Amino acid sequence: MRSALATRGIMRANLGRLALIALTVGAVSAVSMADTVNPKYTFRLGTFAPGDTDTRNATTNYWFAFGVDRKTTLFKGLGDAGSFTSLSADYYERGGNRAVPVTLNLNFPTANFTYFLGAGLTFSKIAAGNRTVTSIAGTIGATYDLTTRFNVTAKYFVSGNPRLRGFGFYAGMKF
User: Fold this and answer.
1) Less CB within 10 Å around the terminal CB: N or C of the chain?
2) What's the CA gap between 60 and 136, in Å, rounded?
3) What is d(CA 151, CA 81) in angstroms, rounded to the nearest whole number?
């Protein structure tokens, strides 16, 4: 007979697989309905590298990460004539520590690169003490467009909690 802890672990693994299948089906569906002229959404999948040495030593060097961007018309034309704003939400986690930074970004596109900086809030859960914390968030980074549909992104996350600061590296797809 399985212990309750083992059963809970199996259920969590199955829930993770189900979420991955739903995400894949959603991505395939979104591609078929995508706006090819002016895509508004970018979905990304990648890794997060914590900047804090103690966090890296307590968990691993790289954490699972994903995120989504949505172009907005807020503050249109701020700064450079081609600049635009976007709303960004990311998720990264490892070893019971997780963060969801939600930021409003100002984007500056060039030929193949888009540079951005943003500010918002980070909703996080810290494994030590099992506590949830909300703090100020910031991000700065760049996206390189491989094609009109695919890109790679590098961004630095700033959080009120030093354990959750670090670099995110992603591959993304625009819809």
Assistant:
1) N
2) 25
3) 22
Give residue 67's identity as a one-letter amino acid code.
G
Q: Partners of 99 in the beta sheet?
A: 92, 124
pTM over cut 0.90:
no
Q: What are the distances in angstroms from CA 88 to CA 5, 45, 74, 103, 140?
A: 35, 13, 13, 5, 12
**pLDDT tens across the length of the chain (175 residues):** 556 555 555 555 566 666 666 666 665 555 555 545 678 999 999 999 998 877 777 777 789 999 999 999 887 666 666 889 999 999 999 888 899 999 999 999 998 999 999 999 999 988 877 888 999 999 999 999 999 999 999 999 999 888 889 999 999 999 8
DSSP E strands, the chain: 41-50, 63-72, 84-94, 97-109, 113-126, 131-145, 150-159, 166-174
What is the DSSP code (8-state) at residue 162? G
26-44 b/e (C-beta count within 10 Å ≥ 16 → b): eeeeeeeeeeeeeeebbbb
